[in-house]
Write a structure and sequence with these properties.
Helix content: over 70%
Radius of gyration: 59 Å
Order of helices and strands: HEEHHEHEEH
Structural class: alpha+beta
Distance between the termini: 145 Å
Number of helices: 5
Number of strands: 5
């Protein structure tokens, strides 16, 4: 009986020992598995932290890029605005230059027209008066010079035109009436005897009006303070009309 009991106790002890050994092994295995899971969790947390830091860095970079982009856009808008203003200024400057060019062209056209007329008048005068006539240009006026002795003879105080002089003046009047857009001025010095020099100039002017049918609104007598024995007949544009034409051209060009 004692032997059976002993045997049972041994079997029970062995069984308990075996069960305990198995439980201990399983516990170790569970602990090991938990440790592995813990390591995985820690690594995951580390990876998550690294990812969060990368996200934060990317967000910072994105903010910086957005700020930079905003600055570039602002600068671009300013540049475009300045460029538009500059283009507008350039356009206005170009328009002003074109207007100025048109004005200059208008002035040149007026002078060219006058020059063309002057050439025609000089050609006609030389053909009509002869090559010996003293014809020239002075300050935009076509000038024919005549000695007072040719006009009034050798008598000092004579105020009556010679017939040869009248014929010469008539030829001038024929050309002057052909170009009726030109004015005619008679210019002479008063000399030492103003009572003679002045009336002689006026007499030539009167002859153009009364004898040779030059319109009085085209005629003018100019008596200067000098001592020349020459009386000059000048054909020139009407300076008032010339000024008005120039003014109109400038207005139309602007």
């Amino acid at each position: 009986m004692r032997t059976l009991t002993t045997s049972l106790l041994l079997v029970l002890a062995f069984s308990i020992s075996t069960t305990f050994a198995q439980s201990k092994k399983e516990l170790r295995e569970q602990i090991s598995a938990l440790n592995n899971k813990l390591k995985v969790l820690e690594q995951t947390q580390a990876d998550l932290g690294q990812a969060q830091r990368k996200v934060s860095s990317l967000e910072t970079q994105l903010e910086q890029l957005q700020t930079t982009n905003d600055g570039l856009m602002a600068n671009m808008n300013k540049f475009l605005e300045a460029s538009n203003q500059q283009s507008s200024t350039i356009g206005k400057t170009l328009e002003a230059l074109q207007q100025r060019e048109a004005q200059i062209k208008g002035i040149r056209d007026v002078f060219s027209a006058q020059d063309s007329i002057a050439i025609l008048v000089i050609t006609d005068l030389k053909r009509t008066l002869g090559e010996n006539a003293q014809i020239g240009m002075s300050k935009g006026a076509i000038t024919i010079q005549m000695e007072q002795s040719f006009l009034y003879g050798d008598k000092d105080k004579n105020l009556t035109l010679q017939e040869t002089a009248k014929d010469f003046l008539n030829k001038i009047a024929i050309v002057a009436n052909k170009y009726n857009q030109l004015s005619l001025s008679v210019v002479g010095d008063a000399g030492l005897e103003p009572e003679i020099g002045g009336p002689r100039v006026i007499a030539v002017t009167a002859a153009f009006e009364n004898d040779f049918e030059v319109a009085p609104n085209r005629l003018r007598s100019i008596i200067t303070t000098g001592f020349s024995s020459v009386i000059r007949v000048q054909l020139h544009p009407d300076y008032n009309d010339f000024y008005l034409d120039m003014k109109d051209d400038l207005k139309s060009a602007s």
